[in-house]
Amino acid sequence: MEVAPDFVDGECLTRFTDKAIEWINGRVASKDGKPFFLYLPYTSPHLPVIPLERFRGKSGCGAYGDFMMETDWHVGRLLDTLEAAGLTRDTLIIFSSDNGPENPWEKRITEYDHFSSGVYRDGKRSIYDGGHRVPFIVRWPAKVKAGVVVDQTVGQIDLLATFAEIVGAGLPDDAGEDSVSFYPLLTGATQAPERTAMIHHASNGRFAIREGRWKLIMEHARDERELYDMRADPGEKKNVISQHPDIAARLTERISAIVQHGRTSPGTVQANDTGWWPDLAWIAGEESTNPRRAKRKKSTTPENP
Question: What are the pLDDT digits (tens) for 282-305?
Answer without folding.
Answer: 998 744 333 333 343 333 344 443
